[in-house]
Structures are given as structure tokens and as C-alpha cells.
Design goal:
By secondary structure, the chain is α/β, with parallel strands linked by helices. It folds into four domains: 13-200, Rossmann fold (3-Layer(aba) Sandwich), CATH 3.40.50; 213-256, no CATH class; 271-448, 2-Layer Sandwich (Nucleotidyltransferase, domain 5), CATH 3.30.420.240; 457-553, no CATH class. Helix content is 34%, strand content 18%. The strands form five sheets. It has a seven-stranded mixed beta sheet. The longest helix has 17 residues, at 86-102. The relative contact order is 0.08.
Length: 555
Amino acid sequence: MPSLRKRRSLEKAAMALEDPVQFTESMLNHRIWSRQQEILRSVATFPRTAVKACHASGKTFIAAAAVLWWVTTHRDAIAVTTAPTWTQVERILWSEIRRMVSCAQINYPKPATTSLHLDANRYAIGLATNEGVRFQGFHGNVLIILDEAPGVLPEIYEAIEGIRAGGDVRVLALGNPLIASGPFFDAFSSNREGWNLITISAFDTPNLEGLTLENLLRLPETELDQNPCPYLTTRRWVKEKYSEWGAGHPLWEARVLGNFPMQSDDALISLTWLEQAKLRTEGDGDIVAGLDVAGPGECETVLCVRQGPRIIQLRGWTSDDARGDVLAALLPFKSRLKRVQVDTVGIGHYLAKHLKDHGFPVTPVNVGEAPRDRERFANRKAEIYWQFRERASSGDLAGLTDDRTIAQLAGIRYSHNSRGQIVIESKDEARKRGVKSPDRAEAVILAFAELGGVFGVLEFYRREAEASKARRGIGAGLAPAVCPKCGRAVSRFGDFWRCHECGDNGLCERPSCPKCQSPASRTPSGWRCMRCGIEFYETTPRPVLPTRSNLDRWP
């Protein structure tokens, strides 16, 4: 019969095999901190775990420990690791695995560059691919590690779901939350069901635990380098990044606090604005609907109904013919409905006609047509999307409770073309970075689009005249109010001015942006920066035009 000491030793070894934390500390000879322990126990308990973390939090290290625990303690176990690039697979995660194997209590076989075989049916392997088919064929007890998960292609996530159809399959996705769209972002927003979610802030790590930002900024220089775990996020680094980025900067949010950025540089709508709209419940006004129609095989036909700033209904259908469903959803509002704004490009034309035949006040919307403000926007789509952005930023939005819609709205990006016009990212470009068609977002934006005549007929013709002058090169810059040589009135010729009296002439001045000092272009109401897009009013007087009181100054 084994001695008491021997029995306790065997019990301890058995517990180490069951508990990944004890396995890591006793078999792999590594002490791990609280959040790392939480990640390992989540892998042992939950089918899917997603971890968004600050920079240098030890997330890749703990993923390596999870791989060795899985293949060591599970019969016929397979561990598959992946990352966006081969370099990340080989030099980051598998570098950690090879280092752990070399100092473990267990006599593991020598691992190859990206594989470790314990026997024919028990092994770990690293893959870097954009082909989901390479993830087929793994069945049974499978652990899948997605390192730098925000950059892993959507096709890989879809292939992983196929593996999860049978057997005991665990998924661990880890990364810095830099990209507020794609499958990793969805795990923390619209697709969070079924995921155990973990967030690691720099202030959770052992080096900053118990410190607030205010306390950190007051620390003397000597204490900034007092880090119990110097291989994790350090005090000095966090302080430097605060000085460089400041609180609220997207990189501060992602790399220091472990949150998805509140406002990416090219994000159309801040996630913060959308989360605030989720909390608002008040709002009254006209009832307006927006309808985005999906063709056969596409995602969803989506209807959004709003009352003033408040969304009161949001529904989607995946059937090929949603005419009856849409009609039934709109019937309760028919007597009070001011208009139904339908995207009539493509198949939407027929559904718009169907609603009109049933007596609904349909307003067709062609997002590809010219905008009202042709200088600022590339097309009507950019104009109505920007309208929604301004509404959301001002707080004039409520009842946005659907997580999938919030995720889609937060994932929309914009840019400026060579003419300085605002352009919304196309669906093809969004699809390349793993973003599916934002059907719900488009229905909401259509519902809030201001399509009617906001200004009167005289204002319309005034704007058209201004646009015509701009196309002819008139009004591109500022001419002097009077001739600087003789004080008489001047005339403009394209980008030049000329005095009527003495013939002096020169180039019209173009004002600089008060924010970034870049050149500006004229708008009907003032000026707009050609780089950052802000609008401002001119401070230099306009040229003097002939009136009854100054006719003597004109030849």
C-alpha cells in the first residue's frame, strides 16, 4: 500500500491534470497571475472564450500553456493554433510553446517549428491560412487558439464553427481590441451569446494593480520602474502612452484599457454614441419607416420604424420574398405613417411598388444619385449617412437596443476622395475585412434620412448658382475688398482680381483652416477645410460690389 506521502503526491498530480492552473504552475514551472488563471479555467469550463486585452498582458503566454495542458491531459487531443500571419504563428505563440516545453517537468518530445506530436492521435499544430478548408478534418477533442484574433479572417471563424458541430471542441480567441468590426468584435457585441468574455486592462496587471490613473501620474520617477513582473505592461509605459495619446484616444482605449476604440480614425459613428442611444427611451414626433431590401441569397430584408428620434420597431427577414411580412409589420402604423423610405436600387424597386399599390406613402431613395451638397459629399449615400452621424453625435437618437444593429453601425467607415468629398466605404471593401452586409444599419439610416426640401426655392437656386460659379472657377478664393494701390473697386477673373482704375492685379487669397492650416474651399455659407473637413466662416471682407452709394468708384 502506498505511503501517505506517496498518496498525497499522486493526488496532487491528478489534480494538476484536471486543473489547468495547477498544471501550469506544477508541471510547466510557471507562476501565473489572476487574469491568466481566469483564462485557463474558462477554457476548461466553457466551449468558447474571447479575451480582449491591453498590450503586454501575457495573453499569448497563457495560450501556449492552454495548448500544452490540452494535449497532455486529454486522450486523442488535438490543438490547432492560428494567427493572421505565418510570422505571428511561428515566432510568437509557437516560440512560447517551445520555451515552455524546454523547462517543463514532463519529458515532451522535441517540438518542430510549429508542431508537437505526442503520438499519432495527440498533437498540436500551428496554421496560418486564409483558406477555411485547411481547418476541415479536425474532430474529437479539439482546442482551437486564435491569436491576434481581430485580424483572423471571417472564413476561418466559419470553418471553426464546422469543427464545433461534433466532439468536445473549445475555442480561445485573444487579441488587442483595435478593430471595432468583424467576428472578434461581434463576440463582444452582437454575437456575445455562447462566449465567456474576459477583458484585461493594464490596471488589472500585477505592475499596476491597485493604482488609479491619477495615482500613476503622481508617482515619483523611482517608483515608475518598480514592476513585480517586468515582462508585463509596465508603469512607465502606461504613463508615457497617456502623455502621447491622452485619455479617450482610440489607442489608449485599446492598448491600455483593453476596450474597443470609442472612435476609430475612420469610423463613421462612435460606439459611445450608439451605446448612449441604447439607454435613451424618450422621443416623440412623426412616424417614418426605412426599408432595406435584400435579394435572394443575401442577408436580411430589414424594416426600421421610428417616432421622432426614437426607434419603435426593428425587424428583419431572411426569406427570399418578404413582401407579406413587411406589409404586415407596417399595417399597425398605416394611419399615422408619414412616409416609408425604401432603397429602390435593384430589387428594392419592386417592393416599393408593392407597398405603394397597398396605399403606403412610399418615398424612393437612390443612394447613388447626386447629393444636394455636391461639394461636400460624393453621392447621396454619403450625405444621408453623414446626417445620421450628426444626429447620433448630438444625442438625437433613442431606442437603439439591438446589439447587431449597433455593431453594424459602429463598423461603417468613411474617407475623403481626391476632391475632398466624403465617401462611405463600399460593401465590397467592407467584405474584404470581414464585415457582412450592414442591412440593419442601412434600414435605420434610411428611416432617419432627411430627404425633403430642407431649404426653400430661392435658397435652392442660390446654392445652384454658387455651385455653378465654383465649377467655372469663380469664388475659389478671396479678392481684396478694394484695390490695395488706389482704393478703387476690383473685379474677379477666376482665381485672379484686377482693379478697374489702375489695372493692378493679383492672385485671390485662399483662407487657411483655423484647425490644421490646410487650404480651404468655398461653400455656400463659408469655407470648408480640404483636409479635415471642418467648416468656418471667412474673416476677410468680400469684394465691394457696385451699389447706388459707391457708383463713383466704378468706371
